[in-house]
Design brief:
heterodimer, A: mainly beta, Methylamine Dehydrogenase, Chain H, 4-stranded antiparallel sheet, 3 helices, B: mainly beta, Alpha-Beta Plaits, 5-stranded antiparallel sheet, Eukaryotic translation initiation factor 3 subunit I (chain A), WD40_rpt (chain A), protein biosynthesis (chain A), RNA binding (chain A), translation initiation factor activity (chain A)
Amino acid sequence: MRPIMLKGHERSLTQVKYNKEGDLIFTVAKDKIASVWYSYNGERVGTYNGHQGTIWSIDVDSKSEFCLTGSADFSMKLWEVSTGRCLFTFDQDTSVRRVEFDPYDNRILAVTDKVMGFPGSIITYKINRDSPTQQDTTPLLKIDTKEGFEKVSVAGFSYLGKYIVAGHQDGTISKYDATTGALIGSVKAHEGLITDIQFSEDKTYFIISSKDKSASIYDVDNLKQLKRFEADAPMNSAAITPVKEFVVLGGGQEARDVTTTAANQGKFEARFYHKIFEDEIGRVKGHFGPLNYIAVHPSGSSYASGGEDGYVRVHTFEKSYYDFKYDVEVTAEAKAHAGEQ
Amino acid sequence: MTLEEPKIEDISVDDIDFSDLEEKYAVPEDTTFERFVVVDGCPVAPEAKVPVLTKVLTKLLSQAGTVVSFHMPLADGKTKGFCFVEYESQQNVDKAIKALNGKKLDVKHRLFLNRWNDVEKYAISGNITDEFVEPTLPPFQETDYLKSWLQDEAGRDQFLLHKNDTVGAFWNKKKHAPEPVIEPRVGWTDGFIKFSPKGQYAFSIHPQGIQCWGGKDFKNLKRFSHPKVRLIDFSPSERYLVTLSPDPIVLPPEDHPKRASFPFGPESEGHKLIIWDIATGLPARTFALPPHLEKVKEMVWPLIKWSYDDKYVARMGPNALAIYDTADNFSLLDKKPVKIDDIVDFEWAPAGVKFASSKQNDPLAHVLAYWTPESGNQTARVALFEVPTKKVLRTINLFQVSDCKLHWQDKAEYLAVKVDRHTKSKKTIFSNLEFFKLNEKEIPVEKIELKDRVINFQWEPNGDRFVVISKPEVVGANQTFVKNNVEFYAPEITKDKASALKKWICFKTLADQTSNTLKFAPKGRFLVVARIGGSKGFLEFYDLDYNGEKSENENVAANVRLLASDEYGGMTDVEWDPSGRFVAAWSSIWTHKIENGYRLFNFAGELLREELVDGFKDFIWRPRPASLLTGGDKKKVRKNLREYSAQFDETDLMEDSSSARELILKRRRLLEEWTAFRANVAAHKEQYGIVEVSHDNEDLEVIEEIKEEVLKETEEIVE
């Protein structure tokens, strides 16, 4: 099937996200406007206007009622999904690089930048869902970048909203108790900036991508590396696919190096790896700039990629995608099937 | 009671202790004889001639510095044949000895200059014992068998892979991951690593010099100390190593503890080019860099060139060619260089030459070719020159020459000279090819005139065919859009064999090519035509003796066929393995910034293996010495090829299946591990708060949107 192109942003995309049902796609870019689209036909439903700078991050709650954006204008805004109304603005000291709802929709998380003497922090707030325009601006938790750590680049909630896992600039990942903020553990996962963190469906493990040209899967409980995927270009995003045991990686030659190389060498493709065997199994071409974010449909039927080129491409998976299996998997399934009978 | 300050006048001068000042300003008395030279070999002349002689000698010796004093002892009214000279400083002494020692005063007299101290040290009896003391030989150190890699049962080739700071040696396993010979070494070299021409030794570059490695495990064999060495080269039989460093050799001072073990004598002071004997690890000869090369940005390399059997080595100076005999302690042949005005370049024949006139048992001749450009009334010239007879065997005269390149065929049967000539207006350049046929009577020369400029010329190894890449000269056109032609040449077959002189004809042209590189397989027949550099690299594999369809041209013994081609953007090098079975192409970070790595092809251009390696620098095949098999042996192998190949196929199959098995087992293990991990998570559902995802769409509301679009509305009145 032909991919759907979402042409609406004027500058490079920073994040794309599906809602829980997968019928809507939320996108943010450096052009200060957040957009929401129908994933089925690529029609734009509306925009969220109000930010004064690049919007770095967006998240939508599980009921598709509210959505949250974090921007370089030193603020984080809560919006009503259905009307596009800005409900509340959380002002911050520095730009907000990452935002996320916890799995129960009643807490939010923000990662703020380390500039101008501010240490860079992970901040959580309680969300008042009953009267959304009245929010408590005192954070529940403020985890400043600890001594001996580089600044935090990405963060997210684990299962039950129990932990917060953060990726750092130097490739370290750290884990905190989401209620007390205590550091539980850390591990050096990569050699370069952690560019993205995305959790599995049940949030028990997560995938991180790095500028060191690789991505890896870690177990939330013991921060042990489960898998590692080697690529040939800096990776900006990584996602885990439901249904099939795959992961999707996106990235590409740094924008500043692109002019020195030919188009076919930019590596602006989405790469599919087998999650268990760590082999690359396919690539999808299309973007003509690095891929900045990849999101997979919650039911595993399509994926969306946002590129430096300003486009979002939504690809629906075809039959061959579902049919692809390694011989080992086929035998294992057959064996399990025989066991059941 | 008060203490009175002593008045200065009260102190007597004798009471003052001046010893500190005396020590500080003491003038050391020069009692050494460092500034004195003994000049031997002066004429023995009557007393009356002394003033004249003094004048002559002083004038001569003043070249090295001001002569402070000059003394010529007399006995029985005659000079004694030597004199004493005092210079202003020791530097003058060094200079004088360097410049004037051995200087011929006239036919009969040769001057010998010696330091006074040396005379005292050696000449005065008692200082040096006359008894010969046997130097102690260091115990013999056994090395591994240096050719062990040739004993590989599967006859595989080795190569080195250089990435970042790590170099590893591997066996070629075709499409499988290469098998390490040794553990890859971090920091094995600080620059590059190179094999000697027959593959016995590997050499690594370091700021302090060169290290030599060999044997089964690449053990360290020798060290060659040459600080900041930049360039290295080898003699064809790998007996000698040549190194060049921008830093001149500096002798440690005479009394320095390092002086005794320093491998260079005073004659090497200031030299930058060293020839080493690889087996002993000692320098064989050193040379100063010619002054005209001191300031060049890009050094011409190699600076010295070897005859095919290491017997002679030659280097070019302005207007001269110096040939040295390695067997005679690297001494200059006939003690003087060969004067060749304006010589630009020379090349040794890569094999011994057998002339039509030479007899059955005559030794093979050492021949070199050189060329000189046009100057004044002289035409440009290419000449063949025999060593050691110094006989010019054949010359040709050329005019309107802008450049010449000398290409010897590897068996030295032919010399091709690519002559780039310019038109009278000097605006366009075209090439001529001049062929010297060394095996024929009186060395006939044949000429092929081309319209285009040849940018690459390659002889087929072991053959008499060649391939050129030519670039049409289109006046005014943008040179980057001008496509090249690849032309294949072979000798014409003529019925009348006796009278026929060999004539080459072009039997195939590939037009409109962007290729710039030609690489023949080491044993001929197969050719890789490639474009190297830039993002549009490619390789094409050709067979020159394709035995399928009939040849297009019946006049030549050749049939060119494209076997395969592959695109390889960013490719920086391509190289055949020494057996001619595989081709490695790679992209090195030295010249290309991204997507580094290598690809391995078989001779037919089938891609066997591709690996992307971050920071990949170099792929180095280990060369092989010439085969020891006789012609008969080879014939036997060829005859039983079918049997052998069946065996090899079997080995390959076994190798394939074993690695496939390993892969399946590995995958099975990974899958089991993952399933166990998920099962563990599922068993603790409560703890993880996993809510079963309901897959029935009960709570999902399907909204169907029906859009109607009115395309056209027409009203018709029905009566």
